[in-house]
């Protein structure tokens, strides 16, 4: 009887595993198709200095409009792409598309600002990244100073020496580097002084209640002071209300991103906005 139970369990386990695997490969196949069928687009969300009108940069955010399933959030498909080498293809597409966009806007006489792209941590340490980026900068004739890279904390702890080496090469191209979602990873503060970083982005989970929840306000204050002491630029992301912005300003933060200022928007809308404000 025990043996039979054991066999049953094994059977259930296997079929569940199979369905998870099938589903994952299904999505991977669809991501692959999405790349070749051009189903991805980029949205751009402005970063502002103090006020809505002072746009000093943009962040490129990938959008997937699936022909049947409709909009699929990057929060859902990026983690799946990260489990395969598809993330490298996606990240490369985003970099190429971003610099192509810069070129189009520059040719139209629009005053362009630096655009940051989110890179999967795994891709940062791959040996092809720097060569790829230099090639694309060259192809679109865009300066490295018009590109920034956002990475999350996770990867920084895994192979710090490799991260330092890659970041130095990126910086030699004029590219700036931000730590995204700062404060949510397994932070070891020692990496902050070893890595050649430019910017910390305070995670929106702290921003959300910075004006209403004492501890969250204190965490924002601490992160802002930390950034200032280390001579890093600080950006607050996910700012949705005037009281949040006011509180963050009172703590010394000057650069903001969030729905209160601007939502992520199409390239056409952002071009109009840049033309109007610059
Ligand atoms: P992230 O880089 O931290 O981007 C911020 C996310 O917050 C974006 O969600 C943005 O649309 C959203 N957001 C901006 N302002 C507000 C606000 O005021 N309130 C709220 N509630 N949300 C706000 P999105 O576009 O869904 O992207 C989610 C995550 O997916 C990104 O987090 C990033 O980690 C990843 N991601 C997005 N695009 C790419 C990409 O091209 N490549 C890679 N590797 N990852 C990407
Ligand atoms: Mg980001
Ligand atoms: Mg973030
Ligand atoms: Mg995030």
From TrEMBL:
Residues in coiled coil: none
Domain EAL positions: 24-278
Top-level taxon of the source organism: Bacteria
Location within or outside the cell: Membrane
Protein family: Belongs to the ammonia transporter channel (TC 1.A.11.2) family.
Record protein name field: Diguanylate cyclase
Organism: Marinomonas ushuaiensis DSM 15871
Residues of the full protein shown: 737 to 1014 of 1014
